[in-house]
Amino acid sequence: MLLPAIDAGLMETHLSTHEGKLFKLHTFYHQAKDPHLKELLLLQIKVMKVHVPVMLSFFNPHLNEWIELPMVDELYHDLFSLPHSSDGNHSVDKPIALEAKSTATEMAQENFTSALMMKNENVKHVHVHMALQQYELLKKFEKYLKHKGWAAWHLNASKKGQLETIQKYQHLLQQA
């Protein structure tokens, strides 16, 4: 198949992004101390390495069959049960975990945004699923960060503010 130029351009950009992000993740893996964090980093590396041959296969002009993104089973179950007590707070692990979470967020956003712009239905389909895989990684890093006490703090809205918002937009429910 011949790709629409926008699809080819977006995937070429993704491949160069993967090259840089994989280098960063490998570096993080060798610097990390916590075995749980190392396991998450290896999973993120595995997921990104699964994406590369799929994208490259789309560039083959002689390939015309539908291509599916392979499942990465570890994404859909707990890799580990986090112990109740911390197994040590290594100063290097916190920034690595935060940056790896950020990487998963960026890749999910990039894949989904690109999918919205892509023209080939198969390429679009695969990139939506790539975004979902990165979202699963994001949730795993959030769980790890929360367990370590490193998760970002967020402010809750007030009860009054939430009720006022409902009242302000209630009229939208009556419109057909």
Through-space gap between termini: 43 Å
Beta-strand level of the residues, as a percent range?
Answer: under 5%
Order of SSEs: HHHHH
Structural class: mainly alpha
Q: In CATH, what is the class?
A: Mainly Alpha
Whole-number mean pLDDT: 92
What is this entry, summarized?
This protein is an all-alpha fold and 176 residues long. It has helices at 5-31, 35-58, 93-117, 121-148, 159-169.
Write up this protein.
- The N and C termini lie far apart (43 Å).
- The chain has one domain: Ferritin, CATH 1.20.1260.
- It is mainly α and 176 residues long.
- The chain is built from five helices and no strands.
- The chain is flat, with a radius of gyration of 20 Å.
- The longest helix has 28 residues.
- The chain is 65% helix and 0% strand.
What is the fold's blueprint, element by element?
Elements: H1 5-31, H2 35-58, H3 93-117, H4 121-148, H5 159-169
Helix pairs in contact: 1-2, 1-3, 2-4, 3-4
Key features of this structure:
single chain, 176 residues, 5 helices, mainly alpha, Ferritin
